[in-house]
Design goal:
alpha+beta, Uridine Diphospho-n-acetylenolpyruvylglucosamine Reductase, domain 3, Uridine Diphospho-n-acetylenolpyruvylglucosamine Reductase, domain 1, 5-stranded antiparallel sheet, globular
């Protein structure tokens, strides 16, 4: 039996699935195919299916750093489901499935008296995304707390355990390929008083509320910070706060956030990102690199 047919028979393979609802921008068209993977067996089947019929692959977590084209994605999206959403702890470490949200991980660990992960409460992504992008905030990043990540390679079905050194973690970077999926990760923790950890997380949340736009459709920081500087400051200095394309604008609250109205299109967001990048280059000579990933086809060159 075809691996794709097996996935379809088990209601894991879906067609023409809207991707916007799976992202924080809530924008973008459908995927030609989507696999809702619940366990290792599903990933093994996807790997077999790709061997039978090669097709473009997008691994999608909580969609907090991606922009899906209005035309959608003409390939297969692998979305990790509830089977990869779990947290377990032992003395000195906490393990979590890759679909686990980072705020949930931080709060669950803190309640168990496991500290060191409080900064994750301010990042609206998943464990898998945190490893892939070396996510961080408030002076902390994943590379500092990660012990090991479990990785499944859709290219050959191989499973490996990788340390931060193996992953070559750097600022918003890892060496993970498009077909490599983080399935779980284990983090180093420190004993902490739960109330103290809760206070730290309240401080992080308070800072986000004060300095970042809340209650809006956005994907967090749009550009990587140049070494020794902040992208938001550079964009602000270029006079671009409030600059807009269609129903999308540079946030007045934090210039490295691009916020969308309900009637916006993904093309609007893309065009504004490119316009901000080019304007900053012209006015300051600084080349800003997008942190957000553009998925699918857009109307102008990136």
């Amino acid at each position: 039996m075809s691996a794709w047919r097996d996935l379809a028979d088990r209601s894991r393979l879906l067609t023409h699935v809207p991707l916007g609802p799976l992202t924080t921008y809530k924008l973008g068209g459908p995927a030609r195919l989507m696999v809702e993977a619940e366990d290792r067996e599903d990933l093994v089947a996807v790997a077999a299916g790709l061997e039978e019929t090669p097709i473009d692959v997008l691994v999608l977590g909580r969609g907090s750093n991606v922009l899906i084209s209005d035309r959608g994605f003409d390939g297969v999206v692998v979305h990790l489901g509830s089977g990869f959403n779990w947290v377990r702890w032992a003395e000195g470490s906490v393990a979590a499935g890759s679909a686990t949200s980072l705020p949930h991980l931080a709060r669950t660990a803190a309640r168990a008296g496991q500290g060191n992960l409080e900064f994750y409460v301010g990042i609206p992504g998943s464990v898998g995304g945190a490893v892939r992008m070396n996510a961080g905030c408030h002076g902390s990043e994943t590379a500092e707390v990660l012990e090991v990540a479990e990785v499944f390679d859709l290219a050959d079905g191989a499973e490996t355990r990788r340390t931060p050194l193996d992953l070559a973690l750097d600022y918003r970077h890892s060496n993970l390929g498009d077909l490599e999926i983080v399935t779980a990760a284990t983090f180093r923790t420190l004993l902490v008083d739960p109330e103290t950890a809760e206070g730290t997380m309240r401080d992080v949340s308070r800072w986000r509320k004060e300095y970042q736009p809340g209650g809006t459709l956005n994907a967090g920081s749009v550009f990587r910070n140049p070494k020794g500087d902040a992208a938001g400051r550079i964009i602000d200095e270029a006079g671009l706060k409030g600059f807009s394309v269609g129903a999308v604008s540079v946030s007045h609250k934090h210039a490295n956030f691009i916020v969308a109205e309900r009637e916006a299109t993904a093309q609007d967001v893309h065009d504004l990102v490119i316009a901000v990048r080019d304007t900053v280059q012209d006015r300051s000579g600084v080349e800003l690199v997008p942190e957000i990933r553009f998925i699918g086809e857009f109307g102008i060159e990136e």
